[in-house]
Structures are given as C-alpha cells and as structure tokens.
Design goal:
single chain; 3-stranded parallel sheet; two-stranded antiparallel sheet
C-alpha cells in the first residue's frame, strides 16, 4: 500500500510471474486491487496484492475504499490468509503532504492495531536524496507519533527498499518467515459484524473528510448567494451571471458528495453483488469488443481477398493484352516480309 507513484507496482514486478503495468507519471496506473502469483519460494504459493492509493487519478476515495474493502472481505470469507502488509513511502518527499497523510490514516484504520506487528514500513527512492537528508527524514518518520512511531510501538518494522530485488527479497522473506497470518479490521467489521462500510473505522475516516468537504461547499454557496444579492442590487448582470455559473458548479459538487456518501452505506453483501454486476458488464463489454474486433478482421481479410483477386484479374488481363499486341506485331512483320519477297516480272 502507499500513495500513487511510490513504487508499489515496481516492487511487485520484481517477483511477479506475469507482466505488471508500471506507471511513470503522477497518474495512477493501478485503479483496482490485483493479485500476482510470485516466484520466491518453491514449496509455497505466494501472491502479492497491488492496491490503488487513496489519491487515485480517476477514482474517488469512496470507490477505492469499496474496492479494497470488498477484496479483503472476500479473501477473509474464503480463508485466504494475509501474511503481512507492506506500506511504501518515498524518502524523497520533503514532507508528508495531504495525500500521504490521508493514505497513512486510512492504512491504520484498515489494518487495526492488532495487525500492526505484521506490517513493514519501507522507504523507497533513496537514490533521489543525499544520505544525510534521507537519514533525517527517516528519523522524523520513525519518531513522530503522527507518522510511524505509534505503529512501530505496536510492532511494525522499518526497512529500506534501496537495492531493487535484494532489498525487496529481504522485506518479503521477513514477512513470510514470521508465519503470522493476520485479519485486517475492515474484514472483521464487514464480514463478522455485518457493518455497512460507513460504520467501519476506515469508512468513518472517509465520512469525516466528506463532512468537512460538504461544510466547505455549503459555506462557499452561502457566500455566492450573498454576492448574487449584491450583484442584483448593483444591477451588475455580468457579475451575476458569473456567480450563477459558480453556484451551479458548487451545487454539482455538493450533489456528488451526497452520492459518494450514499455509496458508503453498502454492506459487504451489497458490495459483492455490485462488484459481480460490474464484472459481468466488463465481460459483456470485452465480449462485444472481441466480436467487433473479429468482424473487423474478417472484413479486412475479405477486402484483401478481393484486392488479390482484382490484382490477379488485372494481371491476367494485362498478360492477354500483351499477347494480343505481340500477335499483332508478329502479323505485321510477317505481312511486311511477304511484301518484300514478291518479284515483279
């Protein structure tokens, strides 16, 4: 887990048996939970799970939480054991900004205190900073209670992922050798307790942020309405029209927030049902695209056959025309030779 661009997919690609899509920009390349079978130990099946961050380019925090919660609950229900959690953080980041802090808070809520002993907190991108700067930032991460200190006190372990496969192997081997299966709080809350998502610890975190956002939008709307009254009083139509457009945009944002809040009210059964429906639609789209692709291919092949036939016919016609011209030329030469051979007495 970790923010977008921290290196989650790159880490997994060091072990995965299949190709892993790796992003090279600030846009998220992982928007769904994905499981990869990995090469590490010969006598056990090992899978690494790639998760999207809560700063996804295209999905809201609500959608990401629904995705992660559904996968973890499904895994728990099917007795798929998690050996550990790896949380990645760029040591190159000057400070923990809003996205990083949000991801860290959500990570703590998803895990719960009882799972923290099986958590690895790993720093990445050491080559992007001077060692002295990196050491200072690492010290701040490990000693500040707002950052990692409280998790370390509960048993989380700090690693540096700074040597590609070698350091990645050390991290994964450490968790595998612990042999301490964990159940995350979000799974127990939804499967065992039957709580809807908005009543889980992680859901409450998202709901609280949404309430703050809603309050900000409502305050903006209040200010806009006051300015619109002033614009009317001053008969300033241009200003009033601008404010009207701003008001519509703010109302849309409020409506979107309400929609996100409603999506959080789903329990696990509803999440699973909606995910199944989503997958069914994706399969339908994929099937339709495959059929369309085959139809295009057949059409292209038919056009090629027609072109080949047309080319063959044109060539045959050209050959016949050539033979005809050759016959005419031969006849002309023979006639001329006959005329020259005639003797006049």
């Amino acid at each position: 887990m970790g923010v977008t661009g921290v290196g989650k997919s790159s880490f997994i690609s060091l072990f995965a048996e299949e190709n892993v899509v790796i992003g090279h920009s600030l846009e998220a390349c992982t928007s769904d939970v994905r499981m990869y079978r990995c090469n590490l130990v010969s006598d056990r099946r090992l899978f690494l799970i790639d998760t999207p961050g809560f700063d996804d380019t295209y999905k809201s925090d609500t959608d990401i939480l629904r995705e992660v919660a559904n996968w973890l609950s499904e895994a728990y229900e099917n007795k798929i054991q998690l050996t550990g959690i790896i949380y990645l953080h760029r040591i190159a980041d000057v400070r923990l900004g809003g996205s990083a802090m949000k991801n860290l808070r959500m990570f703590k809520k998803l895990c719960g205190e009882n799972s923290l002993a099986s958590v690895v907190l790993a720093t990445t991108r050491w080559s992007d900073v001077d060692e002295e700067v990196g050491l200072k930032r690492e010290s701040e991460l490990t000693t500040n209670l707002q950052f990692w200190a409280s998790m370390i006190a509960k048993g989380s372990t700090v690693f540096r992922h700074d040597r590609e496969l070698e350091s990645a192997m050390e991290i994964v081997s450490y968790l595998v050798e612990k042999r301490r299966p964990i159940i995350l709080d979000i799974a127990k809350e939804m499967v065992d307790s039957g709580r809807p998502l908005d009543e889980t610890s992680a859901g409450k975190e998202v709901t609280a942020e949404m309430a703050e956002q809603k309050a900000r939008f409502e305050e903006q709307l209040k200010d806009i309405k006051a300015d619109m009254d002033e614009a009317l009083a001053k008969r300033d139509k241009e200003w009033h029209d601008d404010l009207e457009a701003e008001k519509r945009e703010t109302v849309k944002k409020l409506q979107k927030e309400e929609g996100e809040r409603l999506k959080l009210q789903a329990d696990w059964e509803r999440l699973r049902k909606e995910k199944d429906e989503e997958l069914a639609k994706e399969r339908e789209r994929a099937t339709a695209q495959l059929i369309e692709s085959k139809e295009r291919m057949l059409k292209h092949e038919h056009e090629l056959v027609l072109m080949r036939e047309q080319h063959a016919n044109s060539r045959a016609l050209a050959e016949k025309q050539f033979e005809l011209e050759k016959m005419r030329a031969d006849n002309a030469r023979m006639k001329k030779a006959e005329e020259e051979d005639c003797v006049v007495m």
